[in-house]
Amino acid sequence: MSVFWEALLLVSEPQTLGAILIASCLGITLGAIPGLTAVMGVALLIPITFFMDPVPAIASIASLAAMAIFAGDIPGTLLRIPGTPASAAYVEDSYAMTKIGKPERALGLSMVSACGGGVMGVIALMVAAPLLAKFATNFSSVEYFWLALLGLSCAAIIAAGSALKGILSLLFGLWVASIGIDEVAGQPRFTFGSIELMGGVSFIPAMIGMFALPEVLRNLTARQPRIATPTMGPIFAGLGGTLRHRWRNLIRGGFIGSMVGALPGAGADIAAWVAYAIARRQSKTPEAFGKGHDEGLIEAGAANNAALSSAWVPTLVFGIPGDSITAIVIGVLYLKGLEPGPIIFVKTPELVYAILFAFLLANLLLIPLGWAVIRFARHLLRIPPAYFAPVVLACCIVGSFAINNTSFGVLTMLTFGVVGWIFEENNIPIAPAILGIVLGGALEFNFVTSMLKSQGDLTIFISRPVATVLALIVFVIWAVPILRGMRKRQKETS
To answer: Which residue in 38, 213, 245, 336 has the fewest CB atoms around it within 10 Å?
Structure first.
């Protein structure tokens, strides 16, 4: 109980509460503006966290992400423009409600579902993370090698678009991770004579560039038509009866989101689409989906925030990002002198539980802050996204410069920003590249360490029961898309 009490004291400090409140307001504002995503908001928040203690820093990231994911439903409902990729799963239903004069019903259901799903995700995180951490304390370099490979494989295979493009993005990230001095041989790799590259590519400027700068370029070039937004009625009217009738959808969405979110590389986007598909399959009226039906909206909305919370399970327990946001969080933890993994539950358990309580508080704040932003959304959506582009670009430059106080960080950000823009223009997912940068070093280190232990004997990678199971999972993940491709070719030829 002393650990829980210490965690509550850390969360209740004025600095932490203030960080949660400010980040929540920022996240809900960014999410409500089309083109400004949760990941971009977290990327821009990173430079500010340099001046915070670990708990307020991580709590602010968690709060911003939770709010932004929900707020992405607002432009989707009112303008049919999903604010986040996760909102696209049920945008047809929410916008259909707007067309029949019930936008407040759609947004009210989204808000309450997001809150309920987020709380379920936090509970799953509280239960699963400590148990997995105790189990993971017995892991060696072999198990961590397979875990890193599992995270990278999932990120590449389940990424949006084709698996081939996901693999190409992953390979790019692994190449970037190899730049710098080889830890084993001590030889420079891919430095091209640059002294700045001897220490490798700085993760934070690369991440800011790949996520934030393409959004700036897109908002500067895109022309959004001005659309008159509808008026709002009472937001909570009739929600109680609907949720009592659809409670199974809410619980199932939270459960699906918690399970999918815990998979490395999955995230809220995939969880929302999976939950929506299951809701349609299990519904008695599947023909009503896409026409203003509430089942898919509730289930997918709950899955969004549940996945956002449960994505921290592999992050905190194994040091493997659950999604793009937690990939950024790993970088912040390292900057604060904290190494994610089972040891963090041993050395600083109060910090872990403080993060969990902050997550819980952020999800509960969804109700009052969500109500406020829904009422204000009509005015917020009138601001053209292009007006925010100079502000976002300035934040990118300042944040990249602040890493090492050198202009090379800004150059890195701009370079990776162009790469990210090229990726998006060609429908190549960015998340696998970021995960490759984060996990590439760990993958190489654990592989080399294991080979040194065994004196070059590859059988060490299947010499332990857990390692063997993880190896089988990885090979199954690799085999599934290959078998699907072979079957597709057979059907086409026949």
So the answer is: 245
Two structure tokens written together for 47: 């430079």
Q: Containing domain of residue 352, as a range? A: 2-493
Q: How many domains does the chain contain in total?
A: 1
pTM over 0.70: no
Write the DSSP symbol of residue 180.
E
Per residue in 177-203, pLDDT (tens digit) is 888 887 666 778 888 777 878 877 877
pLDDT digits (tens, 9 = 90+) for 388-424: 677 767 767 776 776 667 788 888 888 888 888 888 7
Q: H/E/C letters for each residue in 429-459?
A: CCHHHHHHHHHHHHHHHHHHHHHHHHCCCHH
Name the one residue in this structure whose structure tokens are 């590859």: 458
* Alpha carbon distance 453, 473 (integer Å): 24
Distance CA 55, CA 46 (A): 14
**How far apart, in whole angstroms, are the C-alpha atoms of residue 89 and residue 44?**
26
How far apart, in whole angstroms, are the C-alpha atoms of residue 211 and residue 421? Answer: 9
Q: What is the CA radius of gyration of the chain?
A: 22
Would you tell me how many other CB atoms lie within 10 Å of the CB of residue 38?
Answer: 28
Q: How far is residue 211 from each of residues 33, 204, 221, 236, measured CA to CA in Å? A: 16, 11, 17, 35
Q: Tens digits of per-residue pLDDT, 329-388?
A: 777 777 777 777 777 777 778 888 888 888 888 888 888 888 887 777 666 556 666 666
